[in-house]
Amino acid sequence: MRSLITPLRKEGYTTLKIRHDWKKGTFRMEVLKQWEKDLDFSKYNQEFYVESILTDNVIYLNTTQVWELYRKYGLEDYLEEILDLIRQGRHFGIELYYNEKWNITYMSHQHSRKLGINNRLHATLAGGIRRHSPDEEEKEVIIDGLNLGRGMSFKNVAGHLSFGGCKQTVTMEPLDMENMEIMGFLGFCIDSCRTMTGPDMNFPTEMADVENEHFSMNYTSGPKSPLGETGKPTAYGVYVTMKQAVRFKEGTESLDGKSVMLIGLGAVGWYMGENLLKENVSLKIADLDTKRAAEFVDKHPGRGIEVVPLERAYYEKVDILCPCAIGGVFYDENIPKLQCRYIWGSANNQLRASSQEEEIRISRLLAKRDILFQTEWWHNTAGVICGAQEYLMGKDATYDHLIQVIDDVMPKSTYENLVEAEKLGITPCENVYRKCEQIIYGD
After folding, report:
1. pLDDT per residue over 52-81, tens digit each?
2. DSSP strand E in 192-315: where?
3. From the DSSP assignment, how many helices (H) and strands (E) are in the chain?
4. Which parts of 159-203 fold into alpha helices (H)?
C-alpha cells in the first residue's frame, strides 16, 4: 500500500509535519528524526519531556527536501493527493509520529486552532483518539481523520468551547495497556500536538486512566475520571435538544404520545433509551446485537418496548427516528422510503456524503419530505463538553455542573438554529455550517 510512512521507515525518520495556510493556499512540510529507535517511552514525563533533546543526531528536512524524499520513493503523486485532501477541507494540517519499534503510526488531523490559540491552556485543540488496524488503507484513515477533525471544529463551536478541532488516528495492533512503552509514546504524541483527547473507536476508555496516572493529563473521560465516560451526557444532550425540535415544530417540548424508533444500544444509545422512557413515548428499539436489545427490554419491564429487526428499523412508521449507531445511513435511494417526521440521534455523519456540499444537498431532500433534521454535531456535542469540563476543572468537575452547562447551552443553540434556518429559507444543516464558518474562517 502507498504510505506516508515508507520514506520514514526506510531512512530512520520519526516525524512528518504538514502545515497548510488555507488563505494563501501554501504548504510547509518538515520531516525529522527526533529520537533514536531504542528510546524507552515508558520514561516519558519522568526522565524526559516533549521539549527534551532526545538524540544527538537530530535530522531536519525542509519542504523542498521533503518533496525530494517522497519523489525518491515514487510517492510524490501520493503526497500531492494527501495535500489536496487537506486543501479541500481548509485544514491546518497533519502531524505524524512513527514508532518503528512497535510499528505505530500516530496522526493528528488538525482542522483549526483558531478558537484555542488564546485559551491559556496547554491544549489548543480537542478531538477524540481512535485506533485503526494496520491492514487498513492509509488514505482512507486520513480521509476519516480529516473529516472528523473538521467536524470537531464545528462541535466545539456548538459547545461554546475554546478549542480548535482535530482527530487522532493511531494505526496499530490492539492496545496492551500494560505495555508502558506504548502508553508513554501515546502520551508523548498527544502532548506534542497540544491536544486534549478522549478514547474513541477501538480504544478502551480505561486508557485515559492509565495515561493520567503515568504520562499525560491531556487524556479525559476514563472510568475513574470525575465525570466518567461520555456516553451518558451525550445521550442527555441529544434528548434535551430533541425536545426543542418538537417545540419548534409543534409548540410543545413534551414527547408524550410520540412514537420513537431508537437504533443502536451502545455507549450512547442505551442511555438515550432511558431518557426517552422518562416521557410517555411508544418506544421501538433495534440493535445489531439482538441480545443487547432483549436485555434493554428486560431492564425496563412493563414499558411495552418493541424490538424491531435492524434491517426494518429505518423504515418504521414513527414520529421520531433516533439513530445512535453507524453513520452514512440516509441517502438518495432510501429517503423516499422513510416514514418519520424527525431524524434526531447521536450517530456521527448520518448522511451518506463525502463533502459538506453533498451533505447539504441530502439535507434538502429530507426537508422536501418535511422531515426535520439538524446536522448531528450541533446536538451530540455534550460528550465534548464533558471532556472539556474535566480538562478545565480537574477533580473539581461535578456531574451536576456538567448537566447545568448542557442545559444552558444546547437547547438554546438548537432552537435558535431551527428558527434562524426557517427565517432564512434554508435547512438547519446549511445554517449551522454558515454559522460555524463565520467563526472559524472569518477574520
Report:
1. 999 999 999 999 999 999 999 999 999 999
2. 195-196, 259-263, 282-286, 306-307
3. 14, 15
4. 180-192
Q: What angle do CA 434, 244, 340 make, to 5 degrees?
A: 90
413 neighbors 224 (Cβ within 8 angstroms): no
CA distance 159 to 152: 10
How far apart CA 353 and CA 363 sit, in angstroms, is 10
Q: In this structure, what are the phi and psi dihedrals at residue 94, rounded to the nearest 5 degrees?
A: -130, 135
The CA-CA-CA angle for residues 321, 147, 73, to 5°, reads 145
The predicted model scores a pTM of: 0.90
Amino acid symbol at 97:
Y
What's the rounded Cα separation, in Å, for the pair 314 and 310?
8
The closest alpha carbon to 177, from 118, 137, 222, belongs to 222
Would you state the torsion angle of the CA atoms of residues 397, 401, 407, 413, taken in this order, to the nearest 10 degrees? -40
Q: How far apart, in Å, are the Cα atoms of 119 and each of 194, 367, 392, 410?
A: 12, 38, 11, 22
Distance CA 31, CA 13 (A): 7
**Strand, helix or coil for residue 360:** helix
Q: What is the pLDDT of residues 346-404, one digit of tens each?
A: 998 899 987 889 999 999 999 999 999 999 999 999 999 999 999 999 999 999 999 99
AA letter at 162: S
Map residue 121 onto helix, strand or coil: coil
The residue type found at 13 is Y
Query: Which residues lie across from 112 on neighbouring strands?
Result: 165
